[in-house]
Structures are given as structure tokens and as C-alpha cells.
Amino acid sequence: MSPAIRLSTVEFRSLLLPPIRISLKSLQTFHRPQYAVCAARPSQCVEQRRALNLYKTARSLTVLGQHKVLTFDRYDVQKASPREDSTHRINLYEAKKNLNDHKLIAENISLKTLYNKHMRDGQLLYCLKGMEKKTIPKIRADPEIIEEYRNMALLKSHTHSVPIKHATAMNKFNNLGPLKVVIFTIASPPDYVRMCMDRAYQFLENGCPVEMRIRMQNSKLTKEERIRAGDPEVWPWVHARFPHLRPDFILKSMPAGAYYLVDPVSDGRIVQWVMAMPTKNQTKTEYTKRLFTVKRSVEMSIEKGQQAMLPKVMRQQLMETGNLNYSQNTGLPKVQARMKYASGGDVTYGGEEKKWLARDAETDKFLVPDTEEALQQPLIRYEPVTVPKEGSEPWRHRRGKTRRH
């Protein structure tokens, strides 16, 4: 059915219950993406979502919604956890498409030997044994458990089929393709991790930048913990014992010529970076430098009281430090809130503003109209427009001529 003639409501009739009628829009929200398969895809948006997106943040033209980058800093894995200093030993296997089919390649080798002699283009590294969700605190408390995770495997690329369009030339692209994001946690199952690695390899082969996001498996964080960085010593400890999670090992296993489009960054809980292949029309933009330029701009915007839509907990902390440009009752800073609400009239309040509207009148008064400013606004008068009626058919005068009987 064409979208132009589609009904706006859907009715469900039951034999024993009265009919239920709901809007069609509510049904469409269960299907993502919310457009027809044959329709043109919308362009990639650059606004910030729940998680930090390095590629979109580095290309952003505004600081609105980019406060997620505040807790992230550069993470040089070779400086934080040098391969040469790691005393951890692993057993290396050759993996097949069958998860249970493995062949021993090398036994009791160091991370340095693994990186120099075995890691190369198309050899994807992963851990054979899956980790439980609450294993990291146990491992740090009891180092003997680490012996259970010494078996690593190398998987050849293209073992898993990825439904993507192949490029005509492997490494001779004109421009970068659409961004692909690969996400897994330290406790993800081995079959899922190796599939993610294979997908990242094939995405890079076809000219798409790939953003890798590896997350530490943590318990539920409080609102105060979400706006703070995690323990900076956790990831160096993990990377000294789990080489399949190291950015340098992953980059070396990708197609030849792959490089860091955005260098690895971390907030203590997440390590993420962006990889890409060289292109013919490659820009000279340093996206890592641009990312931290956006971060400094967000910090300056907060200091000046111009950053909108900050989390409520962050606004509360800013108020406690003496910054009176923010309020718990609205996501807008004081200047923007007064520009919107001081003149009075019909305004649209957000959910947070409706909830704390009465309290704002007694505390910050960001949402209370200013009587003096409202009186200074020019009064606009609209004169009624009369439309002449011609007989019983008021549309005749629009046609320019009357119809003769």
C-alpha cells in the first residue's frame, strides 16, 4: 500500500475483547530503519548519540551534544603496556570455520614473538575460551585464573561471509565509504569476536572506515559514574595478558595499508579507535587532532556557560562549584533559557522543564517570563481579511470565471 493512502490508525479485533485501535506510527517505531527498503537511505547524521562516536565527533561542526568526549584521552597501548615487558605466555592455534577444529602452531610464546612472527595481514587473533561477565575482578584478585585464558587462535579472513558490495579495486578507492562500527566487550563469546574481526577486515577491504569499540564488562554504573572516567590502570593490565584486545595487534591483522584514522582513546572503561584504508582523494585533516579540538571547545563552552543539554548530574556539579549559568530544571544554559522564556508567550516546555517548572519559579527562575522584557516586545495586530461570497459556492471567485448553467 502506498504511504500516501496508508491509514493513520490500525484496529485489532478480538473475539472476546473489545477492539483496540492504535496509531500506525507507534507500530512503525518497532521496525528499524523506519523507511522502505527500496527508498533512498538518509545521510549520516553527525549529532552525538548515547555512546561516543569518534569519527562523527571529529567531523562535527558544533559542540552541541559532544560532552561525551570529555572523559576520553589518548591511549598509546605500546607506552601503557609494552609488548616487550609482558611476561605473559600464550599457546597459539590455527582456527578453522568449525569452532572445535584447532591445530597447535606455537606453544608458550611471548607477546613480542606473537606480534613479530605470527601477526600479519588476514590473520585474525581471538581467545579460544570465553570469559565470564564478572571474571575481570576475580582475575585481578587471583592471577592464577589467567592460566585458563592462555590459548589464542588465528583465523583467516573471509571465513565468515559478510553481505557487502565488493569494490572493483582492493586498495584504490577514490573516497572513504560509509562508516562501519564494530563493538564487542571483553566478555563477548569467541565466535562473536572472530565474526566481528572478520567483518572489520572485509569492511576495510571495501573502502569503509571502521570504528572499533571494545568495552570493559562492568556492573551497572550510577549517574555520577557515567560522567567520570574509569580506572586508568585496568586496560594496561588487560592488554598485557589479552593480546587479541590490543589495538596494535588488531591493526596489524587488518588489510595491508590500514592505518589509524583516529588514534586509540580511552576513558578507563572503553578503548576505541578508527581504522581506514588509503584513498585517492584523501583529505589532509588530522582527525585525532580535530577530535581533541572539539573536546577543548566543549570545555571552553562549559566555562563560558554556553554548553546546552548537559546531563543533570553534570549541571548539578557545575552549580556546586559556583557556575550559576546552569540549572537542574532545564538543559539550556542561563543565556539561552532567558532568550526563550523571558519574553513570555506560547513556548514549548520539555519533559524536564514541565517537571520542575514550579520549583524553578522559587529557585533559579530560568523559565519564568520577565514582565519588563515582555512589555518591550512590539505588539503585532492582525486585521481580519474578508472574503466576498458569491452565491452558495464560495470557491467560484477563485476560478476567475463563473460556470453557466
Characterise the protein shown here.
The protein is of the alpha+beta class and about 400 residues long. Among the domains are: about 230 residues, 2-Layer Sandwich (Translation Initiation Factor IF3); about 45 residues, no CATH class. The protein is about 30% helix and about 15% strand. The strands form 3 sheets. A 5-stranded mixed beta sheet has the order 3-10-11-9-8. α6 links the parallel β8 and β9. The two termini are about 40 Å apart.
pLDDT averaged residue by residue: 82
Please report the first level of CATH classification, the CATH class of the domain at 70-296.
Alpha Beta
- If helices are DSSP runs of H or I spanning 4 or more residues, what is the number of helices? 16
User: What is the annotated CATH architecture of the domain at 70-296?
Assistant: 2-Layer Sandwich
Q: Unreliable runs, pLDDT <50, ≥5 residues?
A: 1-5, 30-49, 167-171
Instruction: Determine the N-to-C terminus distance.
Output: 41 Å
**Helix and strand composition category:** alpha+beta
Q: In one word, what is the shape?
A: elongated
Helix content: 25-40%
State the major sheet: 5 strands, mixed
> What is the CATH topology classification name of the domain at 70-296?
Translation Initiation Factor IF3
How much of the sequence lies in strands comes to: 15-25%
* CATH homology-level superfamily of the domain at 70-296: Translation initiation factor 3 (IF-3), C-terminal domain
The ordered H/E elements are: EEHHEHEEHEHEEHEHHHEEHHHHHHH
